[in-house]
Design brief:
Helix content of chain A: 55-70%
Mean pLDDT of chain A: 94
Structural class of chain A: mainly alpha
Largest interface: A-B, 28 and 33 residues
Radius of gyration of chain A: 14 Å
Distance between the termini of chain A: 37 Å
Number of helices of chain A: 3
Largest sheet of chain A: none
Oligomer: homohexamer
Number of strands of chain A: 0
Protein name (chains A, B, C, D, E, F): Hexameric tyrosine-coordinated heme protein (HTHP)
Chain lengths: ~80, ~80, ~80, ~80, ~80, ~80
């Protein structure tokens, strides 16, 4: 389990909000991967939550929390780029 | 999945709180779209959560979390515009 | 759906904590209204969650999150008024 | 519904952490009171969630969120008073 | 219910992160104690959530929220001790 | 229960975001260990939540909240080290 990379590039800093959002999705998925390392089981479970309204909303909440941290890390990408 | 735009205009900055709130709703929906790319399935699931009290409350929680990030990014729209 | 006002007066700034709390409740309700525009269905669902202990707790969590943003926007109403 | 006071004393400022915690509990309860104004129904629902492990945990989450706002408002009661 | 102490030592300040974490657990438990003052019922409910995977996760979320407030109060114990 | 270490190394400070993420996972697990000290029961429950889509999402939310605190403690690892 320790060998899974949890944060790609080992940084919360991204060039744009869009990339920050992608990082939030990836970080959320990597926690699931760490908790359930079996790829086939994850694939089966993914089919479950992608077709369940309440679970899709739970995905949204998790990504929202991860993104709030990433956005703060990037000072909300306020400065011109 | 990578081709879906996650943050319209690639920015958290909006002119007004109202627009910030609209952005929060859009960002929450785009995570669902990324997780479930099939438009027909999403339409079916939308009918589920729009008619379920607990799921409507979950929608509200997700938007509230997204909005807290957007509001901070805009320094709460405190300065005159 | 776009025609529903999401934030009354288009501002997070309120004169008092009490008004901030009222705004939090309104903002939470307006997300539900946007997600379920049919007034009759909303009325039916309201009867559901107002009589269900777990859903009342979920209402409380959503309002708490909205209020945390509004309170920060108003610098917690610390300065004398 | 508009006649229920949502924040006692209309302030988030308290003398001590203990009083801040009591305020968090009261604020959480007043949202439930606003959503379900019938005292008898609330009493019945209270018996439900006080005897249900998952609902007690949900009460705890709501109070924790309310308290985080109150604690920030009071600058965590760091300075002597 | 008013006689239960909600925050031991009436302070969010602790000497170490470890003690801050212990305080988060205690504060979360004291809200449950306030909501359900009957020790025997609490003991029964504890057996429920200590043996239920989803409830254990809910315990973890509540403690995480309480700890975020305590950590901020202590400025994350950054300064040397 | 008091003998379980809740925060390894008694510090929220880590060298990298990756290590911060690992700490978030460990801290979340140690709360579960404190709440359910029996290793065999924990092992059984782990098999439950690692194979349940909704519970995996709940794991993700808890780690996200713990990580937000750790990231803030480390000033988001912005400065070079």
């Amino acid at each position: 389990m320790e060998t899974i990379t949890l944060i790609p590039a080992n940084s919360l800093i991204t060039a744009t909000p869009e990339e920050g959002r992608q990082l939030a999705i990836k970080m959320a998925r990597l926690i699931i991967k760490t908790t359930q390392p079996d790829a086939q089981i994850r694939e089966n479970l993914r089919a479950v939550y992608a077709n369940d309204a309440m679970m899709l909303l739970a995905v949204g909440q998790t990504v929202a929390i991860e993104f709030s941290t990433i956005a703060a890390a990037n000072d909300y990408w306020r400065v011109s780029r």
